[in-house]
Design brief:
Length: 299
Amino acid sequence: MKRVWIAVVMVALIGVVLWFLWGADKTSSLVVNRPYFPLERETVRQSNWRHWWPEPVKDSVFTIGGKPIAVVQILQNGFDAHLQDDSTVLLSYRFVSESGGKTTIGLTSQYRGSLWTRLSTAPVLRRGIADWLAGVQQHFENDEAVYGAPITRAMVKDSVLISMRRVFDSIPATADVYAMIGELRAYTSEQGAENTNHPMVTMYKEDGKTIVMTALGTSKRLPATDSFFPKRMELGYILEAMTTGGSAQVSEIQQNLALYARDYDKTSPAIPYQLWITNRMEQPDSSKWMTGVYFPIMY
């Protein structure tokens, strides 16, 4: 009889150990080297989830560890869900802002069903949760995935510029912009100076008109005229992104650089601009246009 009781006690102890190892509620977490705001933007609308969800999404079904989930509620800092085939297995995903531009992401699994269900589900699900969190981390630490292109914090190279400004009733043709660039190049040559970089272009809307500003880096400061204006850029910090594609692609990257600056709480002391690296008059295929996109920032 004594042996029977010892066996019962041992089984009970094993059950308790298994419970704490596999059946108890557990939170797994990782630190993402990215501020809180991109995660919030991508999470609050479920229509964005395909963009960052680390597992394949088929027929609008999202999975964690290969197990389909049913979303209960979406929050600004995460979501609550349960397994589709077992509503007693609850999942809570949260992210919390940390200092130094980092965010902690965590996924808590809670088991409210039978002991057998917990013991059979938890080991597999926890491995899946670890992989899922690592996938989320990998996505949000990738500039190209979040902002559309790799982003570099660089220094302004061209401080001495010659520029001109022109107003158009609508978005100008490429030839119109290059006509402005041609005038700048001719004036630079007339003044015995050299251009030091690719053409700089800025376009924006104002009172229903399109304002176009073009500039060229020059080897010396040039005198002002009615058409040409010398400018000096401070040799400060700037966000830089290189992209290949047409105007829509460039505009998207420019907007994303502004988002990046806001995400990292950086203010801009000057207007953003583009560096037209590919000569668009010589290359008619806009998908091959290489453009540098720049956003000055202050530290």
